[in-house]
Structures are given as C-alpha cells and as structure tokens.
Design brief:
Layout (H helix, E strand, L loop, with lengths): L2 H18 L7 E2 H7 L5 H9 L12 E2 L12 H10 L4 E2 L2 E2 L2 H4 L5
Parallel strand pairs: 1-2
Antiparallel strand pairs: 3-4
Helix pairs in contact: 1-3, 2-3
Length: about 110
C-alpha cells in the first residue's frame, strides 16, 4: 500500500470510528466529523461514509448535510429515510425534522 492509500485508509477509519459512536436518535454532519478530526475535508468524509464497509454497524445513514438535508447515501435515499425513521428520526421534505435538537456534536 502506498503512502497516499495508507493515509486515506487511516482517515477513513478515523471517520468510521467517530460515526460508530453516534447514538441512536441523533444525526451528525460531514462537517462535524471532519471538525472532530481536526480537518476541513468535508467531502472526504462523504467519500468515507459512501465507502463504509461496516454498515449498518457504523451508522453512516445518520450523517447528513450541515443544513439538515439528507446528503448522499450509497444505497437509495428511501433506505436512508427508512433507517432514520427506525432510529426515531423524522424526515420531511428531504430534511431532518428538529435538526438542531437531533444534531450530535463530537467533543
């Protein structure tokens, strides 16, 4: 594995470890995960979540855009919405209902 791939792998693993700590009933953002990692690589967090080999153990469906919209998902968005609903999170018009109250910020 070359240095670039090793760094990417470490970055993705760190993102997945944080995502695994997300409590049921909460969501976080790509930006929150990046900030917790001391990074501004929000799009790279999106790539990590899209390539998550640990789903559903690492609940990447709970990671959304900073404005509370759903963002992307490796599977159809209807599955993301169904998973969020199962977690007790309501989605209306493509946005998390009560987003600010549902938002998990890493310390």
């Amino acid at each position: 594995m070359n240095t670039t791939n090793k760094s990417k792998s470490m970055f993705f693993n760190q993102a997945w470890e944080l995502c695994a700590k997300l409590p049921k009933g909460k969501v976080t953002t790509y930006k929150e995960i990046a900030n917790a990692m001391g990074s501004r690589a929000y799009r790279a967090i999106g790539q990590a979540m899209h390539n998550n080999p640990h789903y559903p153990k690492v609940p990447c469906h709970r990671v959304v855009a900073s404005d509370g919209t759903l963002g992307g998902f490796a599977y159809p968005l209807k599955e993301k919405i169904a998973r969020l609903k199962k977690d007790g999170i309501e989605v209306k018009n493509g946005r998390i209902v009560d987003f600010e109250e549902r938002l998990h910020k890493f310390k």
